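Incident log, entry 3
Record: Glyoxalase-like protein (193 residues)
Problem: checksum mismatch between cached and fresh output.
Input:
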Amino acid sequence: MRKLQVQGVHHITLTGANRQTSIDFWEGVLGMPFIFDQPNLDDPDEGHLYFDPGDGRLITIFTNETRTANRSRTPTDPGCVHHLAFNVSKATFSQAVERLNERGIGHSGPKDRGFMDSIYFKDPMGLMIELACYRFEPPMGCSHADVMIEAHRIRVEASDYNIQEKHLADAIERVVARRQQTLSDDRSPRNPY
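Fresh output:
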C-alpha cells in the first residue's frame, strides 16, 4: 500500500453569495486580487470566481445572483469547516481591530495563541475567518512547520501546556544547529565578557 503524497493546498472552494458581495469581501476586505472568472462548470446557474490569497494558491468562490449574504454562523458539525486562517504581517495584524471596526465588522479582538496572534470574524455567508500572525520567522531555508515540530518537542519535554515564545526561540536554535555547519568544536552558549 502506498500514499498519495500531497504537496500543498491547491485551492479551497467556498459557496458564496452573489458575485459582487463575493468580490467586495475577498478583494475589498481581505485584499486578495480577483484573478480569474468563469462559470461553475458543474452548475450553469453559478459563477466561479478565483482569488489569490497572497501565496499564488487559490481561494475560489461559487456565486449565484439569487443568493444574498447571511452572516449567521456556518455549521460546525463534525466534517464541516470550522474556519479558514490567513497569514498576515505583524504590521497588518496591529491594524486589524481598527480596520474591522471602520467597516462595522464584528470580531473577537486579538487572541494570544502562544506561537501566533489571531483575530476572528465572519465572511458575508457566516464562515469564520481568522487572520493569523506568526510570532517568529523561520531560519533561512526552513519552514514554519520545521520550527513548529521542534517547538512541540521542546514543549512536551518541558511538560508545558502549550507552545510559548521560549519554545520557539529554543526550536529555532536547534533547527539552525542541525541545518548549518560550523567550524567551531563547541557550539554551546558562552559569555565573552
